[in-house]
Amino acid sequence: ATVSEPAQKCCMENIQPFLSSVLEELMGPVSSGFTDVRSLFDKEVNDIIQDFQKTSDMTKLKENVDQLMNLPFNSVKMEPCYLKVNLLQELLQDLKSRFKVYHIDFVIQRTQNFMQELMENAVYTFEQLFSPSHQADSAKVATTIEKVKLRVLK
Hints:
Layout: H1 4-14, H2 16-55, H3 58-69, H4 75-86, H5 88-99, H6 104-129, H7 141-153
Helix pairs in contact: 2-3, 2-4, 2-5, 2-6, 2-7, 4-6, 6-7
């Protein structure tokens, strides 16, 4: 009871006024990273569509979808997405001194883990909704892939 009132007053005066601006500043790199994850998924599926339209090869399509499933674990392709979040390192340095925010690396790592998890969920959902082995009419495959991609991105 004796600590509650001074703590609330301290929060209301020294923290509350800055929360929205801090959140807005931090969300820039986070949103950018997640947007890049979405764009990467979109690009990879578009590449699968284009490749299939050129070759109409169902075996190659299956290989490409299998490669897509490994996308969340492809550090070379995911790295640009992760780098966007590294900007938090600089932004959080200022917060570290003002608000005593520690474990900046943990915040960045967890955000990158969430990005990888999002990609895992996207490719898993894509695989569940589209199975090349169930596609009887190869003329409709590209259209089906596009529809599944849009559904996943939604």
